[in-house]
Amino acid sequence: DEEEEKKSTKETEMQKMKRIAAERKAAADAEAKKKKAQLKSNVILDVKPWDDETDMAELENAVRGITMEGLIWGSSELVKVGFGISKLRISTCIVDDLVGLYDLEDNICALEDYVQSVDTVSHNKI
Length: 126
Description:
The protein has 126 residues and is α+β, with helices and mostly antiparallel strands. 41% of the residues lie in helices and 35% in strands. The protein has helices at 2-35, 56-64, 101-109, and strands at residues 40-49, 71-82, 85-95, 115-125. A 4-stranded antiparallel beta sheet has the order 2-3-1-4, covered by helices on one side. Strand 2 (71-82) and strand 3 (85-95) form a beta hairpin. The protein is rod-shaped, with a radius of gyration of 28 Å.
């Protein structure tokens, strides 16, 4: 009887140790998932207007008016192209899982009153 009791006690202890190990592993996995860094990119876009009569301040305000989760607008500047036309060069930081670069470009191109086209100048992972 004592041997059987010892075996059952050992099995119970073994089951308890396995359960505790599984709980610890699950907690560690959950913590690692929380800490997983979000992948981000720094993107610089050239936004080209239709002509030299396009109000660039309004164009910039319209572009900055685009809001998406994971999108942060940065600095901007006007770059001379020629014949009195300037393009808006604007930087942004995007969270890769939340913001698709093509979706962002499509949203900017949807500003048809101001925007002729959008080009990606640089796209760098952070």
